[in-house]
Amino acid sequence: MSVLRHDWQNPEIEALLQLPFNDLLFQAHSVHRRHFDPNAVQVSTLLSIKTGACPEDCKYCSQSGHYNTGLEKEKLLQLEKVLAEAETAKARGATRFCMGAAWKHPSRKDFPLVLEMVKGVRALGLETCMTLGQLTEEQTSALAEAGLDYYNHNLDTSREYYDKIITTRHFDERLDTLAHVRAAGIKVCSGGIVGMGESARDRVGLLRELANLPQHPESVPINNLVKIKGTPLENVEDLDPFDFVRVIAVARILMPASYVRLSAGREQMNEQLQALCFFAGANSIFYGDRLLTTSNPLASSDQALFARLGLVPEGSQPSALPHQGATRQFHDAMTAS
Ligand code: SAM
Ligand code: DTB
Ligand code: SF4
């Protein structure tokens, strides 16, 4: 096992990002194998529990009230609807259910229902994750008491690039919420987005901030920007796909024991690119036809990809089973409902 470091410096990370591609992938994959079963992938399903009209101005987001993206807004969903979606996700083979709300922070009025959602989803035997924006210490403790397993709160980009992307909040406020989450004993899910016109130096900065947190996030989602019509980033230049793989690989090396999630943007990737990401150390995905407001690969395409690559969803059956059998079970579970 590698030692977990929290003192990474920019030049070291820059050097990793610039390694010849094969050297970088070999190093990342070696680290990956030392810490994880290289053929197991954690599978989460996402649901938007409150959609659109967000007061924040994140330039990438379909849900910001500052841009005209044509998105239909929705109030906070009813508990029954959320539980029904969670049951479907479970029947299809997901082990974690992630609920996202387009809020700057949860309101006093909505918070009790959010707590009920955590309890209800947990009672179904799923891990729970929420992403609700900024939290106070009191709210964080209440979520912990309700049994929340993970809180997703992304740093999104480097400190230096932050105000080019979001002006309605500060980078340090994100760190404050992450500290509350950690202190309350909830597992941390924090990552970022690439392909927003940032420089390689910004990618280094984002990765350094994540790796130098007092404790590495248990889960690190790496999102490739999904370009949304009507947002300021709708026409930003595509990131070289190999540079995306490099970010995954460096996240794996810096945070060897964390799950690295190949997150938004998979629909725009071919299977070969996704396979490279898995080789580079990605071991978690969002599974299901929708992310929050945009589409994700069809469940059937992911089943086929897993089968072709001999990947197995973590936690859905004993890992001792031969891959083909295990993959068939995953397929059966995923197509059951
Ligand atoms: N409102 C809360 C917040 O921002 O913390 C939670 C929901 S927000 C939609 C969760 C994350 O989704 C963002 O931090 C961002 O990383 C990711 N995201 C949003 N829009 C995206 C897009 N168009 N492409 C890629 N990732 C995106
Ligand atoms: C994360 O890092 N990515 C997810 C989840 N955490 C909440 C969200 C991706 C959103 C992609 C754009 C959309 O569907 O609106
Ligand atoms: Fe709101 Fe979150 Fe979208 Fe930013 S990323 S506009 S905070 S929903």
Description:
By secondary structure, the protein is an alpha/beta fold. The chain has 12 helices and 10 strands. The protein has helices at residues 10-17, 21-35, 79-91, 111-123, 137-146, 162-165, 171-183, 200-211, 241-254, 271-280, 299-309, 323-335, and strands at residues 40-50, 96-101, 127-131, 150-152, 187-189, 192-194, 219-224, 259-262, 284-286, 312-313. Strands 1, 2, 3, 4, 5, 6, 7, 8, 9 and 10 form a 10-stranded parallel β-sheet that branches. Helix 4 links the parallel strand 2 and strand 3. Helix 2 (21-35) packs across helix 9, helix 8 (200-211) runs parallel beside helix 9 (241-254) and helix 11 packs antiparallel against helix 12 (323-335). The N and C termini lie far apart (40 Å). Mean pLDDT is 92; it is low at 317-327. Residues 46, 62, 98, 100, 131, 152, 154, 191, 221, 223, 226, 263-264, 291-294 line the site of 6-(5-methyl-2-OXO-imidazolidin-4-yl)-hexanoic acid.
Task: Describe how the helices and strands are arranged.
Layout: H1 10-17, H2 21-35, E1 40-50, H3 79-91, E2 96-101, H4 111-123, E3 127-131, H5 137-146, E4 150-152, H6 162-165, H7 171-183, E5 187-189, E6 192-194, H8 200-211, E7 219-224, H9 241-254, E8 259-262, H10 271-280, E9 284-286, H11 299-309, E10 312-313, H12 323-335
Parallel strand pairs: 1-2, 1-9, 1-10, 2-3, 3-4, 4-5, 6-7, 7-8, 8-9
Helix pairs in contact: 1-8, 2-9, 3-4, 4-5, 8-9, 9-10, 11-12
Bound molecules: S-adenosylmethionine, 6-(5-methyl-2-OXO-imidazolidin-4-yl)-hexanoic acid and iron/sulfur cluster.
